[in-house]
Amino acid sequence: MKILLAVDSSPASVSAARDIAARPWPSGTTAQVVTVVEPLLGWSSPQLEEALHRSGEQTVENAADYLRAAGFQTGTAVLEGDPKTALVNAAEEGDVDLIVIGANSTRGVMQFLLGGVARAVARLAPCSVEIVRRNPGPEPLSILIATDGSDCSNAAVRSVAGRPWPDGTEFRILSAVEPTSPLLHPHYFSEQALEELRGKDMQRAQAAISTAERILCPAGIRASTTVAVPCATAKELILSEAAEWNADMIVVGSHGRRGFNRLLLGSVSEAVALHAQCSVEIIRRPIQSSAVRLP
């Protein structure tokens, strides 16, 4: 698989590089470490531009050293332009499977380059995205897999099943299907009708979990399961479960809707990525496990 690690000079980027280096990955996984230098608009200073480029080269080389020491085939690049556009385009042109970005959770907002870039990449990338918020290390992880039984959720489960994980890693499957029964009960809804709707909601949640278990089982992954009572939004249920379980990572599928006119994080996956206190993987397509080469 191909990993695109986007870095800047922040400690969050260093943590992301160390975390990726410490974890097991499919055989043949390669990494490209990139940073983005924005153009100096309105005035020209060749000396400053050269200094910024040299600083970018040093930044990517420092991060790449962690990956090379872990045995990754690693390339580096200093891109120019708007960071959000440059990273999304690089992932698309390079046919990348996973973009990895470090996030600074201590201040409550994601910090990458000039700020807001991690959020934009999570929203617009054509591939899967991981936002790292954990201390790096080879120790076992606690991974929460959120599923509603949809094709995109099942793709997220398959991405987990198709990769190696540290020995002792624990998995939990959460189904947080939005209820179909109305929150304000109209007078024409009998209690019997409402109970039938609630029963169907529960059946869908159980079916989503059963499907996830069938996907994980051939990979030797056993997971505990939770069916969330539909008393809150899916985002709130996922975040609450992750916090109570002290999860290291949330894995969630995304329909991959794109467009720069999306000014707010409307989808569940993006909302979880923004507000979670742990790392989050947004899976937009199955991550390939075969050996690949970076261009």
Written account of the structure:
There is one protein chain. By secondary structure, the protein is of the alpha/beta class. The protein has one domain: Rossmann fold, CATH 3.40.50.12370. It has eight helices and ten strands. The protein has a ten-stranded mixed beta sheet with strand order 3-2-1-4-5-10-9-6-7-8, with helices on both faces. Helix 8 links the parallel strand 9 and strand 10. Helix 3 runs parallel beside helix 4 and helix 7 packs parallel to helix 8. The C terminus is likely disordered.
Brief account:
This protein has 295 residues and is an alpha/beta fold.
Q: What does the main sheet amount to?
A: 10 strands, mixed
Query: How far apart, in Å, are the first and last alpha carbons?
Result: 13 Å
Mean pLDDT across every amino acid position: 81
The rounded Rg comes to 20 Å
> Which residues sit in consecutive blocks of at least 5 with pLDDT less than 50?
105-115, 256-266, 288-295
Strand order of the largest sheet: 3-2-1-4-5-10-9-6-7-8
Percentage of helical residues? Answer: 25-40%
Number of strand elements: 10
Helix and strand run: EHEHEHEHEEHEHEHEHE
Question: Into which percentage range does the β-strand content fall?
Answer: 15-25%
CATH class: Alpha Beta
Structural class by SSE content: alpha/beta
- For this structure, the CATH topology is Rossmann fold
The rough form would be described as elongated
What is the number of helical segments per DSSP (H or I, 4+ residues)?
Answer: 8
The number of domains: 1
What's the architecture, going by CATH? 3-Layer(aba) Sandwich
